[in-house]
Design a protein that fits this description.
It contains seven helices and ten strands. It is an alpha/beta fold. The chain has one domain: Rossmann fold (3-Layer(aba) Sandwich), CATH 3.40.50.150. It has a seven-stranded mixed sheet. A three-stranded mixed sheet has the order 4-6-5, with no helix packed on it.
């Protein structure tokens, strides 16, 4: 009960913030609430390219277009219904591109596990810890989607620095990073939701993501939006990594 109460309070606080900003308020008409929880991360505002892996209905893209007004947005979402909402709430200009594909380590068709809550859908089977901690995220169906490597969709020439890569793909984080090999050197910061425990079958965990990014020259600059499960078990959080010598934060 205490955990549900905390989540309700958090949702109400988020709603208040969303209703107070016209840019966000309009999106509510399409059932899309901007990810205003990311406002707590003091990210610098001059990113010129933002890659949104796991864009869903445009929750992060709404936040990003306000926080980084000069940035080119590259949004990746394989599910048709959320992607249509994303396209409605984000101004389709030359600065915003939406791709109907999932990102991963290989170019291939793959089974996609669609959750009742579409933003909990994944290339990986939904595990019991996810279902127990977040009721209403049970699998609804599976569909076939196309998976692409990021570095076969974009090239270094497509990316104007500084570049932020946001990853929220429900357990497939390591695959996204592995598929970005030849453009990773152009990326200045990575904001990735990563898990401490296995919420999706066979998923990568925080230590694997951390190790990969450390070997690629990134260091962790902080953790935000930590989520807890039953018994106050630490489940996941938003980790910010940046290249050595690049400062992604202000203040």
């Amino acid at each position: 009960m205490a955990l549900r109460g905390q989540r309700l309070i958090s949702s109400l606080r988020k709603l208040v913030v969303v209703l107070g900003e016209p840019h966000y308020r309009r999106a509510l008409l399409h059932g899309v609430a901007a990810s205003v929880e990311h406002e707590a991360i003091p990210l610098r505002g001059d990113f010129r390219t933002v890659i949104d892996a796991g864009a869903n209905r445009g929750q992060f893209a709404l936040f990003a277009t306000r926080r980084f007004p000069q940035a080119m947005m590259l949004c990746f979402e394989p599910l048709a219904a959320p992607r249509r909402k994303l396209e409605r709430v984000i101004n389709q200009t030359s600065q915003v591109s939406v791709f109907d594909t999932a990102l991963g380590a290989r170019n291939e068709p793959a089974e996609f596990h669609v959750s009742i809550a579409d933003d909990s859908s994944s290339l990986l089977p939904i595990g019991h810890r996810q279902r127990d901690a977040f009721p209403g995220t049970e699998e609804r169906t599976t569909i076939l989607v196309h998976v692409q490597r990021l570095d076969e969709v974009v090239t270094p020439a497509d990316l104007t620095a500084p570049v932020l890569l946001k990853i929220d793909v429900q357990g497939g984080e390591l695959g996204v990073l592995q598929g970005a090999a030849s453009v990773l050197g152009c990326i200045d910061a990575v904001l990735v939701e990563a898990s401490f425990v296995e919420l999706y079958a066979g998923q990568s965990l925080v230590d694997e993501v951390w190790r990969f990014l450390t070997l690629e020259g990134f260091t962790c600059r902080g953790v935000w939006s930590v989520a807890y499960g039953p018994g106050h078990e630490c489940l996941q959080g938003d980790f910010l990594f940046a290249r050595e010598g690049f400062e992604p934060l202000v203040g």
